[in-house]
Specification:
The protein is built from 18 helices and ten strands. By secondary structure, the protein is α/β, with parallel strands linked by helices. The strands form two sheets. A six-stranded mixed β-sheet has the order 6-7-8-3-9-10, with helices on both faces.
């Protein structure tokens, strides 16, 4: 476990940690020495040699004083190194997370990540502040006692040494069984936590649909499963503790039996053997404490394993020699050259939902996943994109349409390199996105997604994230173009209104407008929009549509849309179906084909023309398809 902690911290903290371990080990050894010094002291007292006893008493007092000083030093060092370890883990985890592909951060992983960064790092550092001392004492003190006893009577020393393997074997056997039930308990606890959060968040849906009983039943089932797991753990842990304590006591009984046999022999030194009995009791105390420490150390090992797994997650491969992006400002071309991509997890979603890719391998593969196409037999059945070849000319607007699950959002994510393609190339400005440095790739595009996240700051601060060095005039201009000024006017603190974590104080449409203002402020040569106006009312949709249209010629736009009337003026409309490009052309050209796009257009137009007839009036739902 200590080796695991040494692996996950940075070099500077590793040096401090080794010093702390040496300090705690010194304290544990000196504690054992203090116990051993009691033996000659008691022997001389029982023999009536007060002169010799005084010298041993002075030695014992000196050892006890140094032990007390070391105890204080190691305790203070433990708290300091514990805090330093938390800081070191937070920094290292933060640095590592910055290297992972954005597509790795699914909702499920983000939830687990919060537990690792929060409780996990706390538990790992806790072993240094609270558990290292008793754990080392449980090994160092008995070892010193065995050596000390052997110096006085080798036969008793051998008897003590023979008990160690049995105690160790008992500890391992009980710990292994406890590990199994503890792991099951962790799973049920995580499920129960998720159900509690789910039940709280789903209250509007559960109450409005009359399904509160279903939600409560799911929650109750999870809580009952957790309760059963806790009971099972107790059923295993209590007998195991008793079993381990029994083995320890049997070992002590064996040594006492040896001492009794030796006492019955002629010429036995009764005083010496009686003092050995005192040390045998001290020998058993720290060993017996292991059963109480097992549960805490087991939890720490589990948290440490999760930290190591996270740090072992393969980062997004970076080019050894990055290619410089096209020089100068202005729009850039975007090219898809025979691009194929499949989400590693068959249960992950494509299209308009957040995918759930498989966990990257713990050890980076010999060939980076970005450049190693999967063999035909290893490909998942469902492919996100299959053989996409497409070019978006500089300064043009390309709209991507299709049914849900056709691969529209996947297309945008590959441009932003949320994932790497399985085959083919995605180029920005003629350069493969895998050959661009991370900073150059990030600077080349702005993105407005369906799911908008705002930081717990002011509206002005959230917009300024798009370009931190922008002045207030530039921030205001971007906000006005995205119609954020209308939001600001009705808020009590105006631009300084805090939006809450995730932007909870704003509506979905308001959050989307702030996100669009952020992208407009960045003024990148490429703008990726995934349903940027889906949550807006018609008036603001029109205003923002005009703002986006004003970028035509200044930036290359790739727009994913379901509301087809918002992209009718696009230079090129690409229709996806099943991960393939099935049609390409302008709005009029695609309508003239009478194919996929025409059916989509008619379907959307029909839904917009629906109206409800008054009850009993003999009316029906009417539609007015428009072209």
């Amino acid at each position: 476990m200590i080796r695991g902690i040494l692996r996950v911290v940075d070099p500077a903290t590793r040096v401090r940690l080794r010093r702390h371990i040496a300090l705690v080990a010194s304290y544990a050894v000196l504690q054992g020495v203090s116990f051993v010094l009691v033996l000659p002291l008691l022997r001389d007292l029982l023999d009536g040699d007060t002169g010799g006893a005084w010298w041993w008493l002075l030695g014992y007092a000196a050892a006890a004083a140094v032990t007390l000083v070391l105890r204080y030093l190691q305790a203070m060092s433990g708290f300091r190194i514990g805090i330093a370890t938390i800081n070191a883990l937070h920094h290292r985890l933060g640095d590592h997370l910055m290297t992972l592909p954005v597509g790795w951060f699914t909702a499920q992983r983000t939830g687990r990540l919060g537990r690792v960064v929060g409780q996990g790092t706390k538990d790992v550092s806790g072993i240094l502040a609270h558990l290292l001392d008793p754990l080392l004492a449980a090994t160092a003190v008995p070892a010193v006692v065995i050596v000390g006893v052997s110096l006085f009577d080798w036969r008793v020393g051998i008897a003590l040494a023979l008990t160690v393997p049995a105690m160790y074997a008992a500890h391992r056997l009980t710990s292994r069984r406890l590990d199994e039930v503890t792991e099951a308990g962790e799973r049920t606890a995580a499920e129960a936590n998720n159900r509690v959060i789910e039940f709280a968040r789903a209250q509007p849906v559960l109450r409005s649909s009359g399904s509160a009983g279903l939600g409560r039943r799911l929650l109750d089932d999870a809580l009952l499963a957790q309760d059963a797991a806790v009971r099972r753990r107790n059923q295993v842990e209590i007998p195991n503790r008793v079993a381990f304590s029994t083995v320890v006591q049997l070992g002590v009984g064996l040594v006492l039996a040896v001492v009794t046999v030796l006492l019955l022999r002629p010429g036995a030194d009764a005083a010496e053997l009686i003092t050995i009995v005192v040390l045998v009791a001290r020998f058993a105390e720290p060993v017996a404490a292991l059963s109480g420490l097992a549960s805490a150390s087991r939890m720490t090992r589990e948290q440490l394993r999760r930290v190591e797994e996270l740090l072992a997650t393969a980062p997004l491969p970076q080019p050894v020699q990055p290619v410089a992006p096209s020089p100068g400002p202005g729009a850039v071309a975007v090219e898809f050259d025979a691009v194929s991509f499949a989400y590693p997890d068959p249960a992950g979603s494509d299209g308009d939902q957040t995918p759930a890719p498989a966990v990257p391998p713990a050890v980076p593969p010999a060939v980076p996943p970005a450049t190693a196409p999967a063999a035909a037999g290893d490909r998942p059945d469902r492919s996100g994109l299959d053989g996409i070849t497409l070019r978006c000319a500089p300064g043009t607007t390309t709209a991507v349409v299709g049914l849900s699950g056709s691969g529209k959002t996947t297309l945008l994510r590959l441009v932003a390199r949320f994932f790497d393609v399985d085959a083919g190339r995605v180029r920005i400005g003629g350069v493969d996105v895998r050959d661009l440095a991370a900073s150059d790739l990030a600077a080349s595009f702005s993105m407005v997604m369906q799911d908008v996240y705002l930081f717990d700051g002011t509206i002005r601060e959230n917009i300024r994230i798009g370009r931190p060095d922008a002045d207030d005039a530039a921030v205001t201009d971007a906000a006005v173009r995205a119609r954020v000024d209308e939001i600001v006017e009705r808020l009590p603190d105006g631009w300084d209104t805090r939006v809450g974590e995730g932007g909870a104080a704003l509506s979905g449409g308001e959050r989307q407008r702030v996100s669009l203002a952020r992208a407009l402020l960045k003024d990148a040569p490429l703008l990726l929009l995934d349903e940027a106006t889906s949550a807006l009312d018609p008036a603001n949709e029109d205003a923002i549509g005009r703002a986006i249209a004003a970028l035509s010629g200044r930036a290359t736009l790739i727009v994913v849309a379901h509301r087809l009337h918002t992209i009718a003026a696009a230079d090129t409309i690409v229709v996806l179906s099943g991960g393939h490009v099935v049609e390409t052309g302008s709005h009029d050209e695609l309508l003239a084909l009478g194919g996929h796009y025409t059916r989509l257009w008619d379907s959307r137009a029909s839904s917009q023309g629906w109206r409800l007839a008054p009850a009993g009036a003999g009316g029906e739902l009417l539609s007015a398809p428009r072209r």
